[in-house]
Prior knowledge:
A hairpin with a 2-residue loop joins strand 3 and strand 4. By secondary structure, this protein is α+β, with helices and mostly antiparallel strands. The chain has 2 domains: 27-143, Phosphorylase Kinase, domain 1 (2-Layer Sandwich); 148-330, Transferase(Phosphotransferase), domain 1 (Orthogonal Bundle). The chain has 9 helices and 14 strands. Helix 4 runs antiparallel to helix 6, helix 4 runs antiparallel to helix 9 (319-330) and helix 6 (247-262) packs antiparallel against helix 8 (295-308).
Amino acid sequence: MPSPIPVSRLLPKDLFPSVDAGACSSPLLKHGHTLHVPAPRPAGHGRYSRPWASVIVWPELRAVEPLGSGGFGSVFSAQYLGQSAALKRVNRSTKNRLASRHSFWNELNAAHARHRNIVRVLAASTCVPAEPWYEGCVGCVLMELCVSDLQQRIYGAAPLEETRSLRYAADVTHGLRFLHAHGVLHLDIKPANLLLSRDDVVKIADFGCSVKLEPGSDAVSPQLSHVGGTFTHRAPELLRGEPVSAKADVFSFAITLWQLLTREPPYVGDRQYVIYAVVAREMRPPLHGHAVFSGARGHVFSALLSRCWSAQPQNRPSSEELTEELLLLRGPGAPDT
């Protein structure tokens, strides 16, 4: 039987204020109750909006076209209530059904975040139509539609100048700063999960590996963290199965920034070799042989990356410190996105 969507993970009222909460909506809504959730103190530009409703009006979902697929799901472009949207269908894993369910609920860890650099969730449901297309589906998440991602942008044909690379990086740190301030660890920061909007703004997406910290805690125990994610970008403490904190996202950000600056893949070779070398030998992407790391400015980049991907999490800067450092790197007049 499908699980009801918790009242904390719901459709924004301003998108569809007259929806009829059906069988899969929160039981609190059925009886006319409203749950008031105190919002944490916001960090930077953004807010946590209060929840309202949680249904997907399936007859209003049209023109579904495939965009891509990942470990537990597939993403499609669609029209929903007259607006362009992205539909993520989380699929049931035949090898690990519990992991696929976790992936769906993790997608909603930042569902009520309203921030310029975080993909906005519009609706989510575990109640899907009884049609062949939805067979094997754990649940669906409707999100704002973006036009590209940093993976495509970095390795595309057009050159990626330093000023734009740093602006993209600043967008990521602003999003991470907001998430970390609200106790959300993404744990899968990489170029493919950093989407680009039509106005060329980076938005953090794909929260399938994310975790929500307990109030007052700054780390999560290994049994709660996920073994998924992308090994090339994962912090060594995650690879070792140790407790993780927001500093794990900082490590992943450093690998991504290196890619933005060099336009090269971070590692080559067998997966097991890379994991062993990162953990046991502290292997990192090379800081020599690239023009971007030469001269006084290049040394600043090298020093920043070295701190961000330090083997010791406590030696890495926070996402808040990263935001300030990138603003200085971008120079006077750079907008504080």
